[in-house]
C-alpha cells in the first residue's frame, strides 16, 4: 500500500475491486443518475482500460465488465437500477442508459440483535431470500410470472443491509435439513386459504396440488400456469374408473425413500432450476466480506470496534491464537482497502471512510466517519422486513429447526413484528412441512399438565366428531403433526363429560386385545379445551413405531392403477405392493385416512386412471368437482378485486 504526495493512501487494482469502486461512485452521486460514460470516467479500473469509450470495441468491453460487476453486487443484495434518458439517441452518440443505486423511497429499519438471535436470523434470511414471492400486494405482481425460473428473485431484495446491523450473520451455519428442504422446492405460487394468501414453495405441480387438497377451503391464485396445472388434475380426477382390487401374490414390494428431484410437470418446461449450494447466501468471498464490513461501519459511524471483535464477526471464531492473528491481519487489510483513493486523487476510487489511524495503530481499534452516504444501504427495507418476519414466524412453528432455536424464533418474532404494519406480514409455507395447527397449543398443554382434552375433530371421512381423550404424545411424520390419544378415560372424566368418552375397541392383531389408542392428525382438531381429570392419569407408554404399526393394522385396503410403470411418486408410499397391470402398474396399500387418499389420487391424477374401492372413487370425483367450482369462484373474486 503506497502513500501519495498528499499523504493519502493509494490503491492497487490487482485484486479486482471494480465492485467497490462502482459502489463508491454511485453512492457519492446519489440521487443523480450517471450515464455509462460518466461511470467509465469516474471508476479508475474502467478509465484505465477503456478511456473515453472512443470506439465500439471499448464500449462493448466496458458494457460487459460493468454488467458483470453489477450482477455481482446484485447477487449480494445491492441493486443498481437503470433507465433510458429521454434525450438519448444513437444519432447524437449519447448513452442509452443511466444508472443509480436502488435504495427505495422508505428509510431502512435498524435494530439491535442479540448474539443468540444470529443462528435463527441466518436461517430466516436464507428462507426469505429463497422465496420468489414478495410481500407486495397481489396487483403489483407480474401478470405472467414464469415457474420455469429458479425461485431466487430476479430483482434482488437488498438484504445485505441486514449484515450491517447483525454482524456475524454470514459466519452462521444453516441447518442442512433446512437448506435441503428449501432448495428442493424450486417453484412458488400464491394459495388462498380461508381468505388468507400464502406464498407456497413447492417442488412440482403434484406437490402443490397435494398441499391445496390437504388444506380445506384453499385454491391456487397465481401464477396462471399453476392454476391451469391444478385444474388439469381436477378434471382428470373426475374421469377416474373403478379399479379391480384383486391382488397378485407376485406383486413387488415398494420401499419408501426420499426423492431428490420430483418429475417436472408438463407445464414447468424442461429447464431445471439450479439448486442453491450449501449455505448459498452465507457470504465468504473477499469482496463480499469487505462489502459487509463497509455497510457495518457505515451504520455505526463514530463507534469503536477492536480488530479481534471485527475479525470474529466477519470471518468467524478462530481455533487458536495463530488463527486469530491471521484473521486480524485480514481485517486490517480490509480497512486499508476501504480507505484508499485512486492514483490521481480526483476519481472516487474506494475511499469510503475517514479512519482514526492513530487509534487504530496504537490500540487496534477501528473508528470510521464520512461514509459517502453509504449508511443509506445499512439496515433492512420495510418490504424485506415483512418477509424476514414471516420467515422467522414460520421457522418458529415448523419442524425445520431444533426446539431451542424454535423457542428463540418465537422470541425474535415478537420483537420483529413491531416493525411491520398490521396486515403486511406475508404468510409463507413449504409443502410437506405443516405449521403447528390451530389446536396444537391446547394438545401440548394437556400433555404437559397430564390433563384430558375435550376435542371436536374431523375423522378420515370428513365427519365432525366430539370426544374426550387423554393425549399422550405429539410426533411428526413426514412433516405432519400427529397426536396419540388414550381413549379409556371414563374413570378420569367429570360426570358431565362422560358421554363423550368412547373407548377405542379396535383389536390388536397380535394380542387380540383392544388397542384403546387413537392416532389423530392434529390439524383435524377443530376445537379443543383442556379438562382437569378427577384423579391423576395413569396412561401406559407407547412408542412411535408401535403407533405406526397400529395405523397400518387398522387401515382400509385401497388400490389405484397408473398409466405407466416406475413412477417416482409411488416410491414415497411405505409398504405398498406393486404389480404389473397393462401398460402401467396396480398399487395396493392400506389407507388410514380416507381424505388423505382422496387428496393423493387427485394430486397425481395425470398418471392415475382407476381407483378402488367404489366409496373412495365416489369421494374423489365429488371432491374434484367441488374444488373446480371453488377455484372458479376464487379466481372470479380476485378479478373483481
From TrEMBL:
Domain of life: Bacteria
Segments of this protein annotated with the region Disordered: 247-281
Entry protein name: WYL domain-containing protein
Organism: Bifidobacterium castoris
Amino acid at each position: 500500500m503506497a502513500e501519495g504526495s498528499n499523504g493519502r493512501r493509494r490503491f492497487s487494482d490487482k485484486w479486482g475491486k471494480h465492485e467497490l469502486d462502482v459502489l463508491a461512485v454511485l453512492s457519492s452521486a446519489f440521487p443523480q443518475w450517471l450515464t455509462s460514460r460518466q461511470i467509465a470516467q469516474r471508476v479508475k479500473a474502467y478509465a484505465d482500460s477503456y478511456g473515453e469509450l472512443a470506439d465500439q470495441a471499448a464500449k462493448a468491453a466496458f458494457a460487459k465488465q460493468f454488467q458483470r460487476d453489477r450482477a455481482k453486487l446484485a447477487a449480494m443484495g445491492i441493486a443498481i437500477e437503470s433507465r433510458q434518458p429521454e434525450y438519448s439517441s444513437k444519432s447524437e452518440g449519447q448513452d442509452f442508459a443511466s444508472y443509480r443505486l436502488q435504495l427505495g423511497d422508505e428509510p431502512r429499519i435498524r435494530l439491535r440483535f442479540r448474539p443468540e438471535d444470529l443462528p435463527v436470523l441466518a436461517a430466516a434470511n436464507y428462507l426469505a431470500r429463497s422465496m420468489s414471492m414478495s410481500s407486495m400486494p397481489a396487483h403489483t405482481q407480474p401478470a405472467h410470472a414464469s415457474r420455469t425460473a429458479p425461485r431466487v428473485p430476479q430483482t434482488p431484495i437488498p438484504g445485505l443491509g441486514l449484515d450491517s446491523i447483525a454482524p456475524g450473520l454470514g459466519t452462521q451455519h444453516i441447518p442442512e435439513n433446512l437448506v435441503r428442504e428449501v432448495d428442493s422446492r424450486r417453484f412458488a405460487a400464491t394459495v388462498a386459504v380461508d381468505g388468507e394468501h400464502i406464498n407456497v414453495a413447492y417442488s412440482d405441480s403434484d406437490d402443490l396440488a397435494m398441499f391445496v387438497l390437504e388444506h380445506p377451503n384453499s385454491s391456487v391464485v397465481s401464477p396462471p400456469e399453476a392454476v391451469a396445472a391444478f385444474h388439469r388434475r381436477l378434471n382428470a380426477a373426475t374421469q377416474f374408473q373403478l379399479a379391480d382390487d384383486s391382488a397378485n401374490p407376485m406383486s413387488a414390494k415398494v420401499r419408501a425413500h426420499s426423492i431428490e428431484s420430483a418429475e417436472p410437470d408438463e407445464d414447468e418446461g424442461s429447464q431445471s432450476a439450479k439448486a442453491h449450494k450449501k449455505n448459498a447466501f452465507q457470504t465468504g468471498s473477499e469482496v463480499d466480506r469487505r462489502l459487509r464490513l463497509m455497510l457495518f461501519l457505515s451504520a455505526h459511524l463514530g463507534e469503536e470496534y477492536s480488530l479481534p471483535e471485527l475479525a470474529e464477526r466477519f470471518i468467524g471464531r478462530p481455533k487458536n491464537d495463530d488463527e486469530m492473528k491471521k484473521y486480524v491481519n485480514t481485517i486490517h487489510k480490509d480497512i486499508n482497502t476501504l480507505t484508499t483513493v485512486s492514483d490521481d486523487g480526483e476519481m472516487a476510487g474506494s475511499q469510503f471512510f475517514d479512519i482514526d489511524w492513530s487509534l487504530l495503530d496504537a490500540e487496534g481499534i477501528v473508528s470510521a466517519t464520512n461514509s459517502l452516504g453509504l449508511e443509506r444501504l445499512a439496515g433492512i427495507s420495510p418490504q424485506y422486513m415483512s418477509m424476514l418476519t414471516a420467515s422467522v414466524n414460520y421457522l418458529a412453528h415448523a419442524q425445520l429447526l431444533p426446539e431451542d432455536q424454535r423457542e428463540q424464533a418465537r422470541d425474535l418474532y415478537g420483537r420483529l413484528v413491531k416493525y411491520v404494519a398490521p396486515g403486511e406480514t406475508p404468510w409463507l409455507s413449504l409443502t410437506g412441512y405443516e405449521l403447528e395447527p390451530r389446536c396444537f397449543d391446547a394438545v401440548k398443554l394437556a400433555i404437559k399438565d397430564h390433563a384430558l382434552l375435550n376435542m371436536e375433530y374431523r375423522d378420515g371421512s370428513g365427519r365432525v366428531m366430539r370426544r374426550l381423550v387423554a393425549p399422550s404424545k405429539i410426533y411428526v411424520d413426514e412433516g405432519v403433526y400427529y397426536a396419540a390419544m388414550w381413549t379409556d378415560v371414563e374413570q378420569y372424566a367429570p360426570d358431565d363429560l362422560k358421554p363423550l368418552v368412547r373407548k377405542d375397541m379396535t383389536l390388536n392383531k397380535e394380542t387380540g386385545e383392544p388397542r384403546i389408542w387413537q392416532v389423530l392428525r392434529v390439524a383435524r382438531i377443530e376445537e379443543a379445551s383442556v379438562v382437569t381429570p378427577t384423579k391423576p392419569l395413569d396412561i401406559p407408554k407407547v412408542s412411535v413405531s408401535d403407533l405406526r404399526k397400529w395405523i397400518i393394522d387398522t387401515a382400509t385396503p385401497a388400490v389405484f392403477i397408473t398409466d405407466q410403470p416406475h413412477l417416482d411418486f409411488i416410491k414415497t408410499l411405505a409398504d405398498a405392493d406393486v404389480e404389473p397391470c397393462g401398460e402401467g402398474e396396480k398399487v395396493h396399500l392400506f389407507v388410514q385416512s380416507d381424505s388423505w387418499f382422496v387428496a393423493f389420487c387427485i394430486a397425481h391424477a395425470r398418471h392415475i386412471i382407476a381407483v378402488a374401492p367404489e366409496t373412495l372413487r365416489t369421494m374423489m370425483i365429488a371432491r374434484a368437482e367441488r374444488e373446480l367450482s371453488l377455484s372458479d369462484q376464487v379466481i372470479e373474486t380476485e378479478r373483481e378485486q
